[in-house]
Specification:
Blueprint: H1 7-23, H2 26-33, H3 41-51, H4 69-82, H5 88-102, H6 105-116, E1 122-124, H7 131-134, E2 156-160, E3 163-174, E4 181-188, E5 195-202, E6 208-212, E7 222-234, H8 240-275, E8 277-278, E9 281-282, H9 287-312, H10 317-338, H11 350-364, H12 367-377, H13 380-385
Parallel strand pairs: 1-4
Antiparallel strand pairs: 2-3, 3-7, 4-5, 5-7, 6-7, 8-9
Helix pairs in contact: 1-4, 4-8, 5-6, 5-8, 8-9, 8-10, 8-11, 9-10, 10-11, 10-12
């Protein structure tokens, strides 16, 4: 797919690529992720103030830029090239759409404008292993099994006078230790009439305890949240369809992000094989190396087309994500091998991209389940059964 980008979309891409090239090289990334927040707050404020990055897909009525998923995907593609550590994914792709779908007007006006300005960050507090199912990426989320089961399963909410009180815990939550707002799915109605509803919890709420985890991919910070009689605001409506809709747009932004990362690491590898010599000639001149890189190029460009198509049709997001994760994993693995001995050192930048591919598949996949879910939704299994 060859997208016809608007001048505004070209400007988003150009401006973001220029800024991140100056402020977010691999050394900057490694330094930022080892700070307390896990990212560079100064750079995040600059991205929010100058580019409106966290508010790209938030309507103007709530203080956002008013663009669509296409612009957010383009921004995430550039963020993926640099492996930008930031609250962008959790805030703009996970939390903001749910607030738009389920929040009351007072809640939207209270929280969306500061989210759009980058003054607040937010996340969805679903345990990591259950996140792809909750978002409808690897199966049907209608039965609520992703939120835990039984009287003591998952997070429980009960009404005390005029407030809701939450009790429980969730692990492997994106940006758990730093988010100013947490959207927390919790069981209500007791054991016999239990149903899952979504609650808004302030990051400074009494009884909330948060811990940062050590993760494979340092650029994608995760942590655990413990709620001990914590006050939460109820968000209206059923959660299954809004979560599934959010999952489709999240898959699109993740696919674009992975494509950006894959394209960058492939470009770096092509540049390196033109310089590295063996037997008196650049290794990039060997036919076997050319073929390997050509295969990766085709894979990355196919994934890019799939990601751009998904920005137009979010229902294709899951399949685009599967293709993009495979492209990133393949490009990063090729980079490690073709860089030779230095590529196998843990400190080389290629490992940042390889770990991102592996960690994203663990958190949002795996790829076979993403493909199986896409096939199920497309009716492939039903068609096969009638033959």
């Amino acid at each position: 797919m060859d997208p016809d980008l608007t001048p505004e979309q070209h400007e988003i891409r150009r401006t973001l690529r220029t800024l991140l090239a100056k402020r977010c090289d691999p050394d900057d990334v490694k330094a930022a992720v080892r700070t307390g927040p896990g990212y560079d707050p100064v750079l995040w404020r600059q991205l929010a103030k100058e580019l409106g990055l966290p508010g790209l897909a938030i309507p103007e009525a709530y203080g956002g830029v008013g663009c669509g998923p296409g612009e957010l995907a383009l921004a995430c593609e550039e963020a993926g090239r640099a492996l930008l550590p930031s609250p962008l994914l959790a805030t703009a792709a996970l939390a903001a759409p749910l607030l738009l779908a389920l929040g009351t007007e007072p809640q939207k006006h209270a929280y969306l404008p500061p989210l759009a300005r980058g003054e607040l960050t937010a996340t969805l507090a679903v345990p990591g292993p259950a996140l792809p199912l909750a978002l409808g990426l690897t199966g049907d989320n209608a039965d609520g099994s992703w939120a835990g089961g039984g009287r003591a399963g998952g997070i429980q909410a009960r009404r005390v006078d005029s407030t809701w009180r939450l009790y429980g815990e969730a692990a492997q939550v994106l940006d758990a230790h730093r988010a100013d707002l947490l959207l927390v799915p919790a069981h209500t109605g007791g054991f016999t009439r239990s149903r899952v509803q979504l609650f808004l919890v302030r990051g400074d709420a009494a009884g909330l305890r948060r811990t940062r985890h050590t993760t494979l991919d340092e650029t994608r910070v995760q942590g655990s949240v413990q709620l001990r009689d914590v006050v939460g605001e109820l968000l209206g409506g059923g959660v299954n369809e809004p979560l599934a809709a959010t999952g489709r747009t999240t898959a699109t932004t993740l696919a674009a992000e992975a494509v950006g990362a894959a394209a960058y690491v492939l470009e770096r590898t092509v540049s390196y094989v033109k310089e590295r010599e063996q037997f008196g000639r650049p290794i990039g001149s060997f036919q076997a190396v050319k073929h390997r890189l050509a295969d990766r190029y085709v894979q990355v460009e196919a994934a890019r087309s799939a990601a751009y198509y998904a920005a137009w049709d979010p229902d294709a997001g899951g399949l685009a994500l599967a293709q993009a994760l495979e492209a990133l994993r393949g490009a990063a693995a090729e980079a490690i091998q073709l860089h030779g001995g230095i590529g196998f050192t843990w400190e080389h930048e290629a490992h940042l991209y390889f770990k991102r591919a592996a960690a994203d598949e663990l958190l949002f996949g795996p790829v076979p389940l993403l493909r199986a879910r896409a096939a199920e939704q497309a009716g492939v299994y039903e068609q096969a059964g009638t033959r």
